[in-house]
Fold this sequence. Notes:
alpha+beta, HIT family, subunit A, five-stranded antiparallel beta sheet, binds guanosine-5'-monophosphate, binds zinc ion
Amino acid sequence: MTSCIFCKIVAKEMPAKIVYEDDTSVAFLDINPQAPVHILVIPRKHFASAEETEEADAPVIGHLHRVAAKLAQEFKITDGYRIVLNTGRGAGQSVFHFHLHLLGGRIFHWPAG
Ligand code: 5GP
Ligand code: ZN
């Protein structure tokens, strides 16, 4: 999907501060951070949102969570961090390539806004 900005980041056609990558995932710093640590963890494969995933995507989605947990250790935010998956415009999703937000380094309130 060439019009997708996150696909372009995966393809290295667009710059990003990549902090981790492997065969199935890429993680990079959010351009507009909402916390001292704000990393996006995305699948290389394009699917628009959680709504578009299939059973076959489950291992990749699980892997993204493991990548986020490892990055939380690396970035020393294990005191308390938040993984956010905005799904649909009503929840604030603005980029329609599945991504986990890994946020840390500040206090988080509940319920989420
Ligand atoms: P969403 O609102 O879809 O859950 O999250 C999209 C996130 O992508 C936002 O936090 C936004 O700041 C980030 N973002 C949008 N465009 C770019 C970009 O070109 N580069 C990077 N690094 N982050 C982006
Ligand atoms: Zn994409």
